[in-house]
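User: Teach me something about this protein's shape.
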Amino acid sequence: MPRHQLLALAVAQALFLPAAEAATITLTNNTETIADDGFCTLPEAIENANGDSQNGRTMSGECAAGSGPDTISLAGYSITLTTALPTVVESLNISGGGGSVQRSSAVICDFDAFPDAGEFRLLTASSGNLELSDITLQNGCADNPGVNASSGGAVSVYAGNLSLTGVTLSQNSAVYRGGAIHFTATGYSLTINSSSISNNTSNWQGGAIHTHGVAVTIDQSSLNYNGTSQNGGALAHFGGNTVLITNSELRNNRAPQSGGGALFVSASVVSLDSCTVHANSSGSGSGGGLFVSSGSLQLMNSTVSSNFAQAGGGGVFLNTSSASLIGSTFSQNTSSASGGGVRSGNVGGPLLVQNSQFNGNFANNYGGGLYASAPVTLDSSTFSHNRADGGAGVRTRDYAAVVQDSTFSFNTAVYDGGGLQSTADLSVTRSTFQSNTAGIRGGGVYATAELQLQDSTLAYNSALQAGGLFARGYVSKEVRDSSLIGNLCAENCQLYSHQGTLSIQRSLLIGGGCYSQNTTNSYNNLSTVNDCAGLATQVTAAALNLGALRDNGGATQSVMPGIGSIAIDAGGTGCAGTDQRGVARAFNGQCDVGAVEIDETAQTGVNFLVNAADDLGDSFCGSEPGECTLRDALFAADSESSASTISFSEAVFTGTQTLSLSQGQLEVLSEVSVEGPGSSVLIIDAAAASRHFGIDVSAGDPLISLSGLTLQNGSQGTAGGAIHTLESLQLDDVVLQGNTATRAAAIGAYLPIGGSFGLSNSRISNSHSSGGIYGAARIGGSSATVSVLNSVLSGNTASYGGSAQGGALMISASGASQINLQDSQFYANLMNGSGQKSGAGLAIFASEGSSVSLSGLLISENTAGGTGQGYGRGGGLWIDLEEGASLTLRDSTIDSNLAARDGGSFGVGGGLGIEAHQGNVQILSSTISGNRADDLGGGLFVDVQGDATVTLADSTVSGNHADDGGGALTTSSGSLEQVSVLRSTVVDNTAGNIGGGLRHIGLLGTLSLQGNALANNQSLGGVPHPDLSLVGNPLLQISDNLIGDYRGSGLDEAPIGSPDGSNNLVGSPDGAGVIDPRLEPLADNGGDTLTHRLIADSPLIDRHGNCSGLTDQLGRDRGIDGNLVADDDCDVGAVEFYPTIHRDGFEDGIIVKRFEQRSAMLSRAELSPRLKIPGQAKLVLRAGARDSSGLLLVHARRLGGRIELQLHRFEHGEWHEGAWAPLRGEQALLRW
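Assistant: First, the predicted structure itself:
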């Protein structure tokens, strides 16, 4: 074969040889030794990777040979170096596995540019691509002489790409540039992902990173607490290419002598997206957060806050060919010069600010929010609460400025231009300047060049001169289709035009103060004062009927003419294509005067129909579907001189609708009735952003009515999380749930003198008061009428470190007020926190002859006190009566409440606590059961002073407990008071100390006990006073009682058959024995409350004759002969003995069926309203045969959320009683 053919074959074979595979070299040792010792160290691994060999180290366990772009695995080792690692000369991936490489801390990096032993950079790459992952590089020191040798304390790259993923670079230093990274390989790229770069320093540029001519990409990383003396506390980049930073944070970096506290970039394309730039500082330089010189910047969806620069640009300094700030927030930044938030410098490239916010920034000179010496466009942005000497919101100069769809509010300038100061041409459209202040001129706008103001609102700004607009200069000024309203000053408040010419058309000048030196083309303007003569036609404020400055749609707030306003269609023709909100002009062919065009046909009259199920209205109640929101309707009602009614379109509000409040609370400023479609149909959700209704009518004595609504998730920092009212208020079929406030989480009602409040058929639940003295609702007034009917207040909480009253409801009334609560439930409410907690369910404070009537109430499972040094008074109910106020409580149940104590004072009145001073208290036909107090009065605690009287009559006090005394009730009186317990049953109560039943503490005063059963009570202390314990020397009036155990009463034994002289039966364990009253357990025996029924042989039956014309707790006549012996037919205790078969009798409200039908359907909806008291059985159905041969009675009871039914059938002369069975589903078919 010829030689040239052999050569060709060899070449061809070589072309098809497989490429060398990359090697993975895994460390087995954390030292820096290089030796053939059977271990693999990091320096050895780098040498092998560089040479694609083992470098003569062949012992088993040594590092594998490199092969191409290798991977070194640290295997999680922590490696401390005393000398630099070998230089990387080929592509390499170092994977730390969570390990670290650090320079020994024994030698300090002293920044003297003379390397001491132990001062070295950790890693250098001279060629190839270097990838680092899941590794920490720490304490590197670049302190050699020369630019490159003194830069990059951790890593320096001279060629190739550098990639970091999951890397931590911390506490690295460089005497010159790049405390952690120095990368000047032009044309290559630096990529950083999910890494932390912190506490690195350099002595010149780039506290953490210095790059030149490199494409930089940083994502999901943090660059925090880095520093340099000159440019770029975290990153300094030069020499072109791009810098892209996303989803990252730059915090607390510093460059104290030059610029760019966090980032300095020159001559490059820069983009930051979704980043946080916070608390960085440039010291005496510019750009406390960012400094971008030449090139371009795009900053999007980011936050720049609390940065500082001694020179310009507290947050950002720009000197670029172009810049865009989009969707970003600039807040609390400071410049000792100009541009507190942003300063755009002198190159002249355009600046776009769009959908951004500048809040609370400060500049010592100009431009608290923004200083622009470049063409600038401000679009859909907000400037608020910024401060500066001049141009507190924005200062522009040298180049034209365009402002559109933006808001300037609450900015403050020491001198000129509270909102905006411009010394270059200025165009403002669809924007609002509100409540800005200037110390000298132009509270809203100060302009000294050509001006065009169109479709904009300047309202409530202030200055010494021209609170609204100050314009001067030998140029043209034009104001069109705008509203200048309520601006304040010493002179020329709305408008001042000096020099040049002014053209003004179709604008509102409201509040006075207009001056124009040279006006041309002025027409169809309106003013409310005559000092704008020549510029506007004077009209009355009533004729204008303007609304408040508010969100009426569009990008900015505006002032809208109300129904019938003279401004509507008064502008003629020629207006711009849209108004301030972007609504097309002109509606009906005629322009409206001012910034807002009405594009709807108004609903007229005093009644308005809501036809839109959202909160996106324009404050104008239109007649077409979708044109009138509830807020619009309220605004329309506000303009009416007589009471209005607001109803809801049945076509729109079908099924359950949720109206999400997006514009803050609904303002009620006139007498109105809001008639909702039903609380189950319309839910108004405030999303914890505001309360629902604020009610304050300036004149008259209006009654506000709300019905058929659910108000949920309201929130307020003061009182009234859902409703705050200064007027009379009636609520019917209103559900208030999940609302929060500092106090009065749902309702804060501060009634006018003689005002009224009503709550009926409503529910207040799951509200939380976080820091005030009231729980869910607070109602207060003088000479007021307060009523709560058929309503439920449950699951509310109040947490407060101090005295608080009324976990669910607190009522404070004076001046002969009338308070009436009826057929309502207060359950599972809680008051906790330190201090005194009064009435977790209900607290009432009444004085000056006020009257309190409570009937048909269920007060159950409430807790007052017991945590954080808190102590409760009245776990369920607390009543405080002063100055002749009176209370009547009847037909009510107070059950399973707790007055707890965790330190502090006393926990008293587990169920009910009363303080009465010169008042009259009556508790009638009620049951107080299962309550507990950590100290006194497990069921009831009464403190009577100042000639007051307290009567407990025909009531049951059972199963209560007090840890100290008075398990059933504790009464305390002074010298003139009278406490009476009449015809009541006080049994089965316990006390941890003395007085298991009644404990009375009275120095003098009168204690009257007539016709009561006090028995089966226990005192568990060392001295047994089980049924009656007397402390002091009260005047006693005791007759016709049964006292089971005489101990502690001061009475002598009087056994059955031998009553004492006052007809009392008194038992004794030492004599004939303790007397058992022979009672059935507490149960439903008819009526509204649970009672103890007398057993047929009870010694309480037919004991005396002092009950003529009276009824028992169940409302039945007393004096029924129970033992077939004439005379003395009155029974002792709360319940008269009736020998009946069925406990319920035939009370009202039952369902009647024919017995012959043999079946009936009962639904949960029918039963639930009848079952008010948990565990109490109610007769719900009766079926009788025509010939009286058959009778069916159906009972029902509620146990939590479960309903159970029981059948009693009489047929063929016999009664049959069925077992209790649960109601499953929504209805049940009964058969008999």
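Now, about its shape. Confidence is low (pLDDT under 50) at residues 1-20, 1141-1149. Residues 224 and 251 are 5 Å apart (CA to CA). If you'd like, I can walk through any region in more detail.
User: That's plenty for now, thanks!
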